[in-house]
Amino acid sequence: MDDSLELFSSAVPSAFSKDDLEPVPAALSAVGGVDSGRCTFYDVTLAEKLAEYIRRSYAQVMLTFKEPKNRPQPETLEKTWKEMETMLMKTAEVAKPDRDKRGVVVIKRSLELWVSEKKGTLSRMFSAMKSKDSNESEIAAYQAKIDRLPHTDHNSVYSEEASNALAIQLLDICGSYLEHCRVEWDDSDDMDKHISECSFRPFSCESPECGVMVSVKNYPDHDSVCPWKRLSCEQGCGLVLQRQEMKKHMTTVCPRKPISCPYKRLGCDAALVLETLEDHLSTATDTHLWLAVLLLDKQDTYIQSLQQKMDELMDIVESTEQDLKEQHSVKVRAIEKQMSSLKSSISSHSSTTKKEVARVKEEQDRIRTQYRVGKI
Ligand SMILES: [Zn+2]
Ligand SMILES: [Zn+2]
Ligand SMILES: [Zn+2]
Ligand SMILES: [Zn+2]
Q: For the stretch 42-60, what's the b/e string if a residue is b when 16 or more beta carbons lie within 10 angstroms of its beta carbon?
């Protein structure tokens, strides 16, 4: 077995083995040495995306059963999964002749439709059950549907393995030239030759920690973003490190990290990097000292101008205080005047009242005296 065949067999993920899905993905047969007459390599990244999309769509439909009392039976899950599988197979068959169209797009649209229809059916079913006005037989029919749908082991139905296998089958059926290789061969020599150079052959990322598998044609895309890829420091310090550590390194410990002089505040605008700082500090001592003196002078001038402003403000405060005092005494005098006029008015009122009382008393005495002498 040459190197390329070794790469091929070690690169096909074991997770892609599917127990009950037919037909067996041809790519796996090829790995097993079966000459199927044509290349069945597919776009690995696309297959993973499609598999994930299938899992998500299925889970979305199953969300209708989120109420514990409505939890579906295993048979329900199985049945729903089979429905989806059948629907996707039909879609793939329909998409097959149209090789210019991306089959995955067609499958995705079909899945979306299925999800929206399925969700509608299930929610109509549950709302009918909850409504008291529904007729008995309708409810019984819905109930029967639910009873037939079963239960619990989600993972056994739409496991990653199952959805990966389904995705590969779909790509094999409807694959356009963009997502699936369809090269044919006459003998095993042609097969070996093609397999070693097929642009769809699976390839494991060269970074040992990554382990991501992509088709060879997509490797440059992955390589340009792989977080584990080792790169030389972009600031040129010479260190080799993983892409995902680059940013942190460049902004923290990298000796080539751009920094400002600690005396920037004094006005030193020297362009420095971490490793040249020490050197700069020892060679630019005079410059820094001179900048400090200039800054002190500037600050002195500023303090003087502040002092002057403060004096002006104090003058304003004092003159305002004086004004207020004067206004205050004018008001006090006016109030005193009003009070004295009130006082005299009260005393004049009280003497009038006294005179009136005396007059009433005199009148009383006069009446009493007249009564006594019998005039009344
Ligand atoms: Zn091929
Ligand atoms: Zn990688
Ligand atoms: Zn560096
Ligand atoms: Zn400096």
A: bbbbbbbebbebbbebbeb
For residue 247, report the distance from its CA to the centre of ligand 4, in Å. 26
- Can you give the pLDDT at residue 78? 81
Q: In angstroms, what is the span from residue 245 Cα to ligand 4's centroid? A: 30
CB atoms within 10 A of CB 367: 11
C-alpha span between 219 and 203 (Å, rounded) = 8
Report the chain (376 residues): mean pLDDT per 10 consecutive residues. Answer: 33 34 36 59 88 81 62 73 89 73 81 82 62 59 51 54 86 78 85 89 91 91 95 96 96 95 92 93 93 92 94 93 92 92 90 86 83 67
Beta strands in 139-243 (DSSP E): 202-204, 213-215, 230-232, 240-242
Task: Report which bound ligand comes closest to the CA of 240.
Answer: 3
CA 314 vs. chain centroid, Å, equals: 56
**AA identity, residue 294:** L
Q: Which-ligand-closest: CA of 4?
A: 1
| Contact call for residues 85 and 20 (beta carbons, < 8 A) | no
Distance in Å, CA 211 to ligand 3 centroid: 26
Does the 230-283 domain belong in CATH 2.60.40.200?
no
Residues within 5 Å of ion ligand 4, judged at the Cβ atom: 261, 263, 268, 270, 284
pLDDT given at position 340? 92
* Amino acid, res. 241: L
**Residue 146 CA from chain centroid, whole number:** 37
Domain with CATH 3.30.40.10 in the chain: 230-283
Counting ligands in written order, the one closest to the CA of 241 is 3
Nearest ligand to residue 30 Cα: 1
Tell me the ligand closest to 232's alpha carbon: 3
